[in-house]
Design brief:
Structural class of chain B: mainly alpha
Helix content of chain B: 55-70%
Largest sheet of chain A: none
Number of strands of chain A: 0
Oligomer: heterodimer
Number of strands of chain B: 0
Shape of chain A: elongated
Radius of gyration of chain B: 23 Å
Structural class of chain A: mainly alpha
Strand content of chain B: under 5%
Distance between the termini of chain A: 22 Å
Helix content of chain A: 55-70%
Order of helices and strands of chain A: HHHHH
Strand content of chain A: under 5%
Number of helices of chain A: 5
Chain lengths: ~160, ~100
Amino acid sequence: MNEVSRDVVLRRHMEGPIVSPIVHICCRGLAPFIQITGLYVFFHGHYSPGGGFQGGVLMAASIILLRMSLGLADSQRVMPNRLPIPLAALGALIYAGTGLAAMVWGGSYLDYSYLPLPLLDPAMLRNVGILMIELGVTICVMSTLISIYDNLLGS
Amino acid sequence: MKAIQITVLVAFAALLMVAVVHLPPKGDPNSPANRAENVLNRPVAGAYYIQNAYLDAKTPNMVTVILADYRGFDTLGETVVVFAGGVACLYLLRRRTA
């Protein structure tokens, strides 16, 4: 693809959506199912292959699909333009914060069995700790990928 | 030049074939990768993980326990790398309006 046609494609992505009701309906119908699959992969990481990275990639794929089909302007309500980078920082902070919380309550860094949650034995605490850091990883991966796509469009 | 390339490639393919043929069978408990002790009769980390992953974290998926619990600091680094990549792309690709 030469420079001119690449610019044309980019400008069309930036200025308006793909004008086709078939593409719109298909992508808007597909996106929620991809999101559900992403959440399943994230929450089911304790029991089957999956986890934070894979679930985050699926969540990002659904939103990038909407970005590509509806255009940047119309998909703002799903995920505003300014949100991804702060969200990615939040995800990394959730991860590091879980480790710090365990440290503050008497354990070593990232030793989840010291997390301050009542009524759980140490093994269950580690289970919950794994879920919390996977949540951080999911948020970070998802918003980083969305942010890279948005930046490629030059917004 | 092309003849040298092809010779080297074929030689490496033959080497890989020989290595694959001599791999121990899958699931062999006596292969070095699956033994609970190494050649110096010291316990190996992998055996500990297999025996204790479920007891330690009540999580059936051993890979998740190793990734997020035993090797949690490593995964923290991976997450920070992903975040740093995103920030680098932000500064490289963003178009300045104003």
